[in-house]
Structure formats: C-alpha cells, structure tokens
Amino acid sequence: MQIESCYLFQGLTRPQIERIESIAKERFIKKGDWLFHEDQKATHIYLLKEGAIELVTKVEDAVDIPISIIRPDNGCLGIGALVEPYLYSLSARCMEDSNLLAIEQVKLQTLMQDDHELGCTIQRNLAQKLLARLKETRREIKIHFMNLVRSITF
Amino acid sequence: MQIESCYLFQGLTRPQIERIESIAKERFIKKGDWLFHEDQKATHIYLLKEGAIELVTKVEDAVDIPISIIRPDNGCLGIGALVEPYLYSLSARCMEDSNLLAIEQVKLQTLMQDDHELGCTIQRNLAQKLLARLKETRREIKIHFMNLVRSITF
C-alpha cells in the first residue's frame, strides 16, 4: 500500500502526502512475530506493503479472538497512535513475512500540529473509519443477540 | 448539559464555544416520541439539558436492542451528523419529557470549515470517543464469545 491509498490520508494534497512520506521508514517483520500488543504505548502507525497481519484481542491469557486480517490493499494498523492516550487497541501478529511502512507517532503528531488542515483531514478520515467499524461490531452483537433470542424461543 | 461540558467541545476556546452557542436552539420532545431514526439523514447534533433519551438499534422489524441511555450529564446524541455520509447510526427515543439543545449539522460544518483548529479539535474528540465505544463494544463481543466457549466446553 502506498501512503496516498490509505484511508487515513485521503483528501490530502500532494505536498502533504510528501511530508508524510518523508517520515515513513520501511520495516520488515517475520511470520509469527508480533508487531505490537494491545494496551501497549502506540509508537507507530503501520501501512502494509507486502504480507498479511492479523489483528486479535485477548480474552483470557491463552485465548485470542481474531478481529480482522490486514492485507496490502485494505488499510493500516495502529490507529491507537492517533488517539489519546495513544495505546494500541488490539494486538497485531504477522501471518506471512511482511514489509511495512512505519510512521512514528511523535513525528506525525508534529506534522498534524504544524498543519491544522492536514490534522483535521486525518482526524475526519479516522472518525469516519471508527464509526464504520463500530457499526460492524454492533452488527456482530445483533447476530449474537438474535441467536440468543432464538435459543430461548425455540 | 452546557455546550462546554460536552466531550465533543473539550479544548475549545471561549470564543469558539460562543460561536457554537450562537447556532444552538432549544427543542422540547415528549416522552415516547422518536428524536431520530437509524440510517436517516443526520441533520442535527443534540445535547440533552433535561430528561432521558434511549439509543437503540433495530435488529428485526419488531425488535430493538438498547445501546445506551443518554442523560444530561453523559454526552450528546447524533454524532453521525459529524461523519460522512451524515447518517444517524442509531435511533433515539425519548424516555422522559426532555429539553435539548439542537445544533444544525450544516451550520456546524460551516463553523468547522471556517476555523480548522475548531474542526480539528471536534474531530479529535470524536475519534477518541468512537475508539472508546469500539473498545466497549468489543468487550461485549468477548463476553458473548466466552459464554459460547463455556457452553461448548461444559
């Protein structure tokens, strides 16, 4: 994924995209390795160039629930780095050897503070994505709810 | 709730708060009436001054799941009005006769476009709230998931 194709950066101008490109660094991570863990300090946002990364949430010490699989065409990881208190909201595990673009949270925050229009665009894109995810997650709850109702009724 | 106590407007300056106050209008709604419906065009954001409003989501034609109850001290309604494509993500039903402050979406968008710092602050507050709600909603799924695991295991 290129920076300009990530949903977070939609609507930015070419010079704004170039400023973000200038703070992005390539990073390689091996299959099976963890990129980050839930509730840890979110130091980076990652865009996936090659590979596959699974987002999971821990239920109990030994149990993870898969939330989604990130591939090069569908988004980025670590959006907790954009939202106070800057913690990862999920854990990310590498499913295949992967190439990433890592954008340091501190540097991106500086760009966003220096250029309010850039900051505002990213925050608006983020809010839009979060509301969409919230609706999807509520749909899952509806399914559980209806299954429960049916198991009681029939 | 006053405008300055709503999470959306935290961090705004006094003149910014006053500009929002100048576009807010009082509205009264009776117990049992619907304020808005899921997937309808989101024309207003509402702050509750007195009363109680229930947010629900429709599962099937005759079934609603309660999502939360809004009271004067805990937030606002209709944040779909801040996020493209500007649709209400839930339905709102009045549980008690209620007094609201209604902020027209079109007017607020104009304020946000004219003052990027104001826009950016609101979007940042919104993203923070949405991420928190997403985490809460995921916690509910975890509970369903663990109940399911237990029902299979035992």
Quick tags:
154 residues; globular; 38% helix; homodimer; alpha+beta; Jelly Rolls
Class by SSE composition of chain A: alpha+beta
> In the CATH hierarchy, what is the superfamily of chain A?
Jelly Rolls
Beta fraction of the residues of chain A?
A: 25-35%
The CATH topology of chain A, please? Jelly Rolls
Oligomer class? homodimer
Q: What would the average pLDDT of chain A be, to the nearest integer?
A: 91
Topology of chain A as a string of helices (H) and strands (E): HEEEEEEHH
Instruction: Report the radius of gyration of chain A as a whole number of Å.
Output: 17 Å
Q: Based on the coordinates given, report the CATH architecture of chain A.
A: Sandwich
Which percent range fits the helix content of chain A? 25-40%
Q: Identify the overall geometry of chain A.
A: globular
